[in-house]
Design brief:
Helix content: over 70%
Radius of gyration: 23 Å
Structural class: mainly alpha
Largest sheet: none
Distance between the termini: 10 Å
Number of strands: 0
Amino acid sequence: MNELKSRVFAGIAWTSSGIFFKTFLQLLQLLILVRMLRPEDFGLVAITYAIIYCLQTLSESGISSVILHYKKISDVQRSTLFWLNICVAVLVGVVLMVFAKSIAAFFSEATLKELLMLSSAALILEALSLQVKAFGQKEMKFSVLAKIEVISALAAFCVAVSSALMGFGAFSLILGVLVSSFIGCVLAWLWLADGWRPELSFRWKEVRGMVRFGIYMMGTNLINTVNSQLDIWFLGRVGSSGAVGGYGVSKDINMRIVQVINPVVTRVSSPLFASFQDNNVELRNIYRQILRLIAVVLMPIYIGCFLYSDEVVYLMMGGEWIEYSSIFGALALWGLYRGLINPIGGLLIAKGQANRSFYWNVFIFLLLIPLLYSSSVLGGVSMVAYMFAGLGLILYWPAWRLLVYPSIKLDFKGYFNCHFSPFLISLISVGGGRIIFDLCAVSEPWFWIVCLFLSGVLYLFITSLFNPKLVGDFSNFYRMLKK
């Protein structure tokens, strides 16, 4: 048991490092390319990604969930699942190529056809390595998986930036994705397959039950992916590619912040939730600690992005993107909401209530359709961003009442208090810095950086002064994992 926990802890360390470095590279790539490509290029890529992400979830068919869920999988079953995954991916890729011209016409963007056809190859490359990577995760080969992710991300970074320098425009990002998928596929077979090769056999009866489970998981993942991309679909239809590009880059940067921080916490919390899934008292304590830790990290960052939106956009993206600063600030509030509710997913899985997550995502989907249609038609990208900012505030209480409370009976006061203190301290420190910034009226970038830095220092000082339990939360979190 101690050996298993040591492997889990080492795996979390490797995976967290891999995620951090990969996301850092992707963010750095984005910040470099916004100074090399046009907003129209990012708009085309945003629409392409919005389609590919959903099709990739569909072509995956829940196979990775099947592999992780079932303890024993025979060679015949493994080979059948492999060929099934490949067939579905090829079918989805061919359908995309056939309809690429029609999709481009729907969005009134002729270049979209070539981008979609090129991207279809990534679906097949990902399918070729999906099963090998899933078994690597199941066998806790986290260090190898992390190395593959980092090397693939580094290759994508080099190809995307060099392609942009050579004038490939929107194709630069797609070429980076293709190279990343190809290298990830090759390295997965070299480092994770352990000599395994699929048999030339296909026995449907052997995997029928597994596939049913996988389809259910695929449905949950698919509707979640669709929800995350619906805004791009609507805006791509009614807005210009430039406006979609400005919105997409603003959204991408805000979501990257969550992607750096939350996966680390999620991977640490998952084994803890599983260990205490039958003890609601202990589970509530752990969950509150996680909520506080996430809030303490995310609150000042996102409130800073909201209050200093003009300055952050100028510093990160350049002066030509300043017209999208209000969109960036509004989406920061949506990113904050997404980050704060993220741990709910792991909690529901530990409690065996994953169906609640599915029904919640269906509810969000049904809610977003009329909201996105009306806001995109009436006000374009700005109205959509403001809608999401308000929606995050509106959904805060329902998310607690429908997801958190039924699982561990955590009352709203306890839930709200985990967020209120970091929010108030962030508002005082970052807001105070903003007031001083406006009073000084210095328009030099170096002064903006100084004000942001001082706001961060003030936040840390006030937090340590009025929230001494924070250090205890971090240390307790670490000790519980090592037990």
